[in-house]
Amino acid sequence: MNFTFSKSAHRRAVSIAVAIAAASVLLAGCAAPTGGSTGTDAAGAGSLTVIPKSLGNKYFEASDKGAKAAADELGLDFSEVGPTSTGSADQVPFIQTAIQTGQKAIAIAANDPAAVCNDLKAAQDAGVKVVAFDTDTDCRDIFINQATVDGIAQGLVDLTSKHLGTAGGTIAILSGGANAANLNAWVDAMTALIEKEHPEITIAQVAYGEDVDQKAYQAAQGLMQSIPDLKAIIAPDTVSVKEAAHYLSDTPQFQGKVWVTGLGLPSEMATYVTSGVIEQFGLWNPEDLGYLATYAADALTQGTITGKEGDKFTAGKLGDFTVGSGGEVVLGPMFVFDKGNVGDFSF
CA-CA distance, 331 to 7, in Å (whole number)? Predict the structure, then answer.
């Protein structure tokens, strides 16, 4: 069958080709240095693009390492791409590129769930399976939750209340991005739990470090210097707890006065724990989180699950999982690290 192209149609065709070529270059140029495929070749029978909140964040380096390991086990074409900052819409170009390059699945930890929703819906309309991990969105097929909101809140509040004892005291919360749905959910749950069960504890302020080392360090400094009776800081993200401990280690006058806990990486927190700057912190294994997200993405792509409640799938070394209400799969409970075990973990 023959077709006749007008000049304007030819120009549009050339423009589309240039745009697709540029998108391929963008994907290749933004791949993180983890050894993963850029995914710019024709997507195979199974292909996955992982989009962390930002590149260079050790938490997501660990989760993406687990995702890559699972992809290798499954024989998936694997890409890790993402922004170097955590702006609300910084992940959008990488979602668009994943659509244009024909990826079968996207696993994303959204900085702002609302800001990426239109593009994730476009991905779904194009047949791409969408897995949210670490942070949920309303535009996905399944959500891989590291732990339940109530479980994290209970774990961190229990550590803090045990330290403070019946006397209680004034505390602050140092979180990451102000628009991060998972962090906000944990902050809200901790606040509600303290108000309900711990009248002896007062939350003086919630501050934000924006997932940036320097900003989190300065936020910790501001809390300790501006709240004279501050007894503790709960920092429910890895950057904030690390930098709160960092500032505490730099200021001996606050050591023994302000107690810090939160969700941290053993590789980043070990020095502070072994030196006695902090006593305990919590987390889960982020490598397992990425690993589970990849197996879920593959199960969706293969049609083994659809994301409905009751669906079951096996995630390699992690064993069997069942999809819960709202398409949520929970990795497991919070784990507590201290001087006795922090050296046993490498992530």
Answer: 56
